[in-house]
Write a structure and sequence with these properties.
- The structure is a single chain.
- A hairpin with a 5-residue loop joins β1 and β2.
- The protein has 2 domains: 60 residues, no CATH class; 144 residues, 3-Layer(aba) Sandwich (Cytidine Deaminase, domain 2), CATH 3.40.140.
- The chain is elongated and about 75 Å long.
- With 218 residues, the chain is α+β, with helices and mostly antiparallel strands.
- It is built from 7 helices and 5 strands.
- α3 packs antiparallel against α4.
- 43% of the residues lie in helices and 16% in strands.
- The longest helix is centred in the first third of the chain and has 22 residues.
- It has a 5-stranded mixed β-sheet with strand order 2-1-3-4-5.
Length: 218
Amino acid sequence: MVEKKAVVEKSGFTFGVFAPYLKKSLAEKIAAYDYRRLSEVLALPTLSEQEAGFFTALKGFSEAYLLNKFIGEKYSANSQRDIINYFHMACGDAKKESVYLLFLNAKSKIISAVKVCDGTLTHSLVYPREIILQAITKGALSIILVHNHPSGDPTPSEADKIMTKKLVFSMAPIDISFLDHVIIGEGSKGYFSFYEDGLIEQYKQSFKRISEESERGF
């Protein structure tokens, strides 16, 4: 698991980096905007169709670059930082929640990142049996769940906690490890980690206690 808390520096899709390579008039148009939010830039009334297409393509290239930084890497504090940066970019201007799964192999290397669905955890098709089936198909032994809060507040809701506990309990008996549930938001930290907050371990201990009590009952 992660050796220490990742120090996340929001990076990636910042139009300001490309300002020296843009025409002065175009650089001035985007100077006052949060460059991580593509929708704000594309909404500029003075942006031409060609310029809008350029920025859309630029975001796609940037997302692909950040995704490539952690796929195939062993999960660690550094890869966690890359994961959070990627999802800040992928979900930064989203108006609804999106749910993603990261699959890890026996060596804790991230082998796949899959978008499961759009919608809140309570209203989306996040079924443990489907996740387990995907894990088995991909040969994964560990899973990380990631989703965003469009409100910008990464604090987990009760529904987030219930679903996370349900997933931990569902996977424990078949030796698939549920490593973390990361909620992407904004603010100084910009995310919430169930692992870092101790909730994953709490849920695992709860499952262990219930299992031991059940065995003693028989």
